[in-house]
């Protein structure tokens, strides 16, 4: 049976971000990123925390209230690359369990289909892979399949993102911008 396309994109997005994490130089963890107030370590910690949430929410059916502040603060410790790898493997395994994407998960804003949650995670990984690439001087070109997926996933609720306070104001893309540039601009980046 072929793999679910959302799981395929999720795996690709995890692999992309993992590649970027493994490319961080020892002197780059404090480098600035396109995300206001976040250095490279903060950005990687944010994505690590997001992956750590997946097993309790998807696999265990726990609510954010039950998980509480378990993943608050620095979850990278003295070996941030290994911490990322471990968290990413846990998220991949939880989303990859049989029927995991058919489950309902409790998120901070209410009950949500796990497939939708996984789609949000893909988009976050893709956009933050670009942020990390820019911060460490890596290749900023994102895989077309991931960009196309992220555009389809985020467009229906893009107008609400800035209101959440978690995203910057959208930027007007330049004339003739490609899909990646339009996605980044939509999410408040200035490529």
Question: Could you explain the architecture of this structure?
Answer:
The chain is mainly alpha-helical. The chain has a single domain, classed as dinb family like domain (Four Helix Bundle (Hemerythrin (Met), subunit A)), CATH 1.20.120.450. The protein is 55% helix and 4% strand. It contains 8 helices and 2 strands; from the N terminus they run ααααββαααα. The protein has helices at 5-22, 40-59, 64-67, 80-96, 114-136, 144-154, 158-161, 179-186; strands at residues 104-107, 110-113. It has a two-stranded antiparallel ribbon with strand order 1-2. α2 (40-59) packs parallel to α4 (80-96), α2 runs antiparallel to α5 and α5 packs across α6. The radius of gyration is 16 Å and the shape is globular. The termini are far apart. The model has no long low-confidence stretch (mean pLDDT 92).
SSE blueprint and pairings:
Blueprint: H1 5-22, H2 40-59, H3 64-67, H4 80-96, E1 104-107, E2 110-113, H5 114-136, H6 144-154, H7 158-161, H8 179-186
């Amino acid at each position: 049976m072929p793999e679910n396309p959302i799981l395929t994109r999720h795996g690709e997005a995890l692999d992309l971000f993992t590649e970027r994490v493994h490319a961080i130089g020892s002197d780059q963890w404090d480098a600035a990123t396109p995300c206001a107030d976040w250095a490279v370590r903060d950005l990687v910690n944010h994505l690590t925390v997001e992956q750590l949430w997946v097993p309790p929410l998807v696999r265990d059916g726990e609510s954010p209230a039950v998980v509480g502040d378990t993943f608050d603060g620095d979850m990278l410790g003295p070996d941030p690359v290994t911490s990322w790898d471990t968290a990413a493997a846990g998220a991949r395994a939880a989303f990859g369990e049989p029927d995991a994407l058919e489950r309902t998960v409790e998120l901070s804003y209410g009950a949500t289909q796990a497939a939708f949650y996984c789609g949000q995670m893909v988009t976050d990984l893709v956009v933050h892979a670009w942020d990390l690439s820019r911060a460490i001087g890596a290749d900023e070109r994102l895989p077309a399949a991931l960009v196309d997926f992220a555009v389809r996933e985020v467009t229906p609720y893009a107008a609400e993102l800035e209101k959440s306070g978690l995203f910057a104001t959208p930027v007007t893309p330049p004339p003739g911008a490609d899909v990646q540039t339009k996605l980044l601009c939509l999410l408040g980046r200035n490529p």
